[in-house]
Amino acid sequence: MIALVQRVLQARVEVAGDGVGAIDQGLLVLVCAEPADTEALARKLVNKLLKLRIFADDAGKMNRSVQDVGGGLLIVSQFTLAADTSAGNRPSFTAAADAVLGQHLYNTMLQMARDAHPHVAAGRFGADMQVHLVNDGPVTIPITVR
């Protein structure tokens, strides 16, 4: 699974002008499933997100996790993270999981996150979404779990 993690002061997702998910301080996570991904990899990614120490401690060092600071997770599906731009100028998305597997792993990941953390919001799988965020830092970290 591929994720792009952004530390945010706030973030929200809209579909057709309606708010579908929002958080204050926390992590905006754009996530993409690949064809060989499994529920075990989804769990590994959720665990990584919850423990990722990218929030400042009292000394200003990145030593706190989203759990430590009581922040939120906003998890948004984004198959374009699997883009291959090596040939030509039009990206190929064949490295992304098909919609059935992608939605299953996205929903599984959401449930795992909600079971482990009290503040989890989400986008809407397959929808044309508008994501609004205030990046904190900015801190943006790519994560791939295999």
Q: Give the helix tally.
A: 3
Kindly estimate the percentage of residues that lie in beta strands according to DSSP: 35-45%
- Helical fraction equals 10-25%
Counted up, domains total 1
CATH superfamily: D-tyrosyl-tRNA(Tyr) deacylase
Largest sheet: 6 strands, mixed
Overall residue-averaged pLDDT value: 98
Q: Would you report the number of β strands?
A: 8
What is the helix/strand order?
EEEHEEHEHEE
Distance between the termini: 7 Å
- CATH third-tier fold name: D-tyrosyl-trna(Tyr) Deacylase, Chain: A
CATH class: Alpha Beta
Unreliable stretches (pLDDT < 50, length at least 5) are none
Architecture, CATH level 2?
A: 3-Layer(bba) Sandwich
Work out the radius of gyration: 15 Å
The dominant shape is globular
* Helix-and-strand structural type: alpha/beta
Question: Which secondary structure elements does this structure contain, and how are they paired or packed?
Answer:
Elements: E1 2-15, E2 18-23, E3 26-32, H1 39-51, E4 55-56, E5 62-64, H2 66-69, E6 72-77, H3 99-116, E7 120-122, E8 129-144
Parallel strand pairs: 3-6, 6-7
Antiparallel strand pairs: 1-2, 1-3, 1-8, 4-5
Helix pairs in contact: 1-3
Describe, in short, the structure shown.
By secondary structure, this protein is α/β, with parallel strands linked by helices. The chain has helices at residues 39-51, 66-69, 99-116; strands spanning 2-15, 18-23, 26-32, 55-56, 62-64, 72-77, 120-122, 129-144.
